[in-house]
Amino acid sequence: MRIDILTVLPELLESPFQHSIMQRAHDKGLLEVHLHNPRDYSTQKQKQVDDYQFGGGAGMVMTIQPIADCIDKLKSEREYDEIIYLTPDGERLTQSIANQLSMHQNIIMVCGHYKGIDERIREHYITREISIGDFVLSGGELAAAVLTDAIGRLLPGVLNDETSALFDSFQDNLLAPPIYTRPADYKGWKVPEVLLSGHQKNIDDWRYEQAVKRTRERRPDLLDEE
Q1: Fewer CB within a 10 Å sphere, N or C end of the chain?
Q2: φ and ψ of 193, to 5 deg
Q3: Which strands sit side by side in the sheet containing 82-92, from one edge to the other?
Q4: What is the pLDDT of residue 225?
Q5: pLDDT per position as a tens digit, 156-213
Q6: E-state strands within the chain
Q7: Average pLDDT, whole number, for the chain?
Q8: How far is the C-alpha of 88 from the C-alpha of 136, rounded, in Å?
Q9: Longest Cα separation, the chain
Q10: Could you give the residue ranges of the DSSP H alpha helices within 86-172?
Q11: pLDDT band at 120, cuts 50/70/90?
Q12: Prediction pTM value
């Protein structure tokens, strides 16, 4: 998979992709992440990429020309399955969306900044708009990092245990059940006996029951979606 990210702050995104699972995905040749600065495409003398809003109002807006030219260049080189704009008013990111996107080959992500991007980019280029939550960040970079991580870890071969992602929270609309490791008894706090029994069916049944219980207590809305 290849992900191209348009950002005026490429330095902010370098670190998240150089460690842990994302670095592993890159080293295995399973995920390429390329950063593109719209300033490199600006026709302005000072490489300006923002301007005042038409109609007045506080805050600057990212201009159409640098973003459009960057996207046009990328699209001339390969086909893209999605061009995603990270924005608070997009559809809420879910595990289901991450699963869908992990099936694609090429994705562009556009990071807004200032007050956002010229609406014409959204109208003529963007194919999907995604929000990582009901709050506002200084820019779309951290949201792009979150989305890339959510997608990248699902790619076959990225995780050491291929079945690991299947039991994450939100798969099948359930939160993950409680998990334990050694020692089995710490200060009298004991691991549930069923997990030490070696009886896999009983363990699986217990985990499912606990997942349903935890979801009902903490996120009943997920059960309502079934």
Answers
A1: C
A2: -55, -35
A3: 32-36, 2-6, 106-111, 82-92, 128-131
A4: 72
A5: 999 876 555 555 656 688 998 999 999 999 999 999 999 999 999 999 999 999 999 9
A6: 2-6, 32-36, 50-52, 60-62, 82-92, 106-111, 128-131, 185-186, 189-190
A7: 93
A8: 6
A9: 71
A10: 95-101, 119-124, 141-152
A11: very high
A12: 0.89
Question: 97-130 in b/e burial notation, b at 16+ Cβ within 10 A?
Answer: bbeebbeeebbbbbbbbbebbbeebbeebbebbb
CA 112 to chain centre: 15
**DSSP class of 175:** P
Q: How far is CA 210 from CA 43, 136, 177, 201, 206, in A?
A: 58, 34, 5, 14, 6
From residue 57, give the alpha-carbon distance in Å to each of 15, 48, 52: 35, 19, 8
Q: Which two tokens stand for residue 43?
A: 């026709």
Q: How far from each other are the two terminal CA atoms of the chain, in whole angstroms?
A: 30
Q: What angle do CA 31, 35, 38 make, to 5 degrees?
A: 150
* Owner of token pair 């080293």: 27
Query: Which domains does the chain possess?
Result: 2-152 (3.40.1280.10), 169-224 (1.10.1270.20)
Q: Amino acid identity, residue 68?
A: A
